[in-house]
TrEMBL record:
Keywords: NADP
Protein name stated in the entry: Zinc-containing alcohol dehydrogenase superfamily protein
Signal sequence interval, chain numbering: none
Pfam families: ADH_N (PF08240), ADH_zinc_N_2 (PF13602)
Residues covered by the Enoyl reductase (ER) domain: 14-326
GO molecular function: oxidoreductase activity
Record bears the keyword Oxidoreductase: no
Length: 328
């Protein structure tokens, strides 16, 4: 290992954020941490959102919440892990991330990878795959077949994973998308609503014969979540990943809906070691599903580190479908 590592540094945050290749000192793992040799990462909305806002970041910063690679070094008091093991991890948003040759992560969040799963496929999972997993399995607990779920923004990475997971529970899946209608249907959606062509609420009501849906997974915005509240049946549930409705917009108490938040990346700030271990175990289950071909990792493009700045801008403009993977 060299004393320095190649990175893509966020030098300035804001609407005109700048990213540039640089060599920086290779970090060493502290107590309870491991260092990964990153082999692959991926593009996620949280990356360009943090690049634009810079909120809570110390500059310069390294983005990249997804990491897949081998353990390179183990810090003090870490047991059960050793150099050379193939793993993936969700990185801490406020520390240097995986757009670099090496990254430091909490040992509790490590997921062991099946030997047959490539690093590129694994790199799609920590953020997008596990966000969908929490929405479907931790929050909604879709155990009873026959429920109807609407998933907004199904053309993106989280949406595509959620479509597959909901379908596998036996749910009827309605999805919203635009340019990726055929791909979303291929992933398992029963009906795909092109949100550019009309009123999503009205079309979903038509598709359910006025009955509404049992659950909504909203991946778009607080405004989107609010607009879809009337679609929920009595005892319906909504999972909010980007923003939640305000109290004043909620239906009457008698409708008995449930609201759930998914904020996977903030487990480091608001959770504890058990929360991180829960993420790791879910990651191992999901990695096994991908290795066995039960979940499609939705890779649409593999790029180099030098191509990341333009790929982030494309994602920010809403032009990215599925998962764009970075090979390091």
């Amino acid at each position: 290992m060299n004393d320095t590592m190649k990175t893509l540094l966020l030098q300035r945050a804001g609407p005109d954020y700048t990213l540039a290749r640089a060599n920086v000192p290779t970090p060493a793992p502290a107590v309870g941490e491991v260092r990964l040799r990153v082999r692959a990462s991926s593009i996620n909305p949280v990356d360009f959102k943090f690049a634009r806002s810079g909120a809570g970041l110390t500059m310069p910063h390294i983005l990249g919440i997804d990491a897949a690679g081998e353990i390179d070094a183990v810090g003090p008091d870490v047991t059960g892990w050793q150099p050379g093991q193939r793993v993936m991890a969700l990185t801490n948003l406020y520390r240097w991330g995986a757009y670099a040759e090496y990254v430091i992560v909490d040992a509790n969040v490590l997921s062991l990878l099946p030997d047959e799963l490539s690093f590129e496929r694994a790199a799609t999972l920590p953020c997008a795959g596990l966000t969908a997993w929490q929405a479907v399995h931790l929050k909604l607990k879709l155990q009873q077949p026959g429920r109807t779920v609407l998933i907004t923004g199904a053309g993106g990475g989280v949406g595509g994973f959620a479509v597959q997971m909901c379908r596998q529970t036996g749910a009827r899946v309605l999805a919203t998308a635009s340019r990726s209608v055929d791909r979303v249907r291929f992933l398992g959606a029963d009906e795909v609503i092109d949100y550019r062509q009309g009123d999503v609420l009205a079309e979903a009501m038509r598709l359910t014969q006025g009955r509404g849906v049992d659950a909504v997974i909203d991946l778009v915005s607080a405004d989107s979540a609010t607009a879809l509240l009337p679609l929920l049946r009595h005892n319906g549930e909504m999972v909010c990943v980007v923003g939640r409705p305000q109290d004043k917009d909620l239906p009457p108490w008698e409708k008995a809906i449930s609201l759930h938040d998914v904020a996977l990346g903030f487990a480091y700030q608001h959770g504890d070691a058990d929360n991180l271990r829960d993420i790791a175990r879910a990651g191992e289950s999901l990695a096994q599903s991908v290795a066995e071909g039960r979940i499609d990792p939705q890779i649409t493009r593999i790029i180099s580190l030098d191509e990341v700045p333009s790929a982030l801008r494309e994602a920010q403009a809403g032009h990215t479908q599925g998962k764009v993977v970075i090979r390091l």
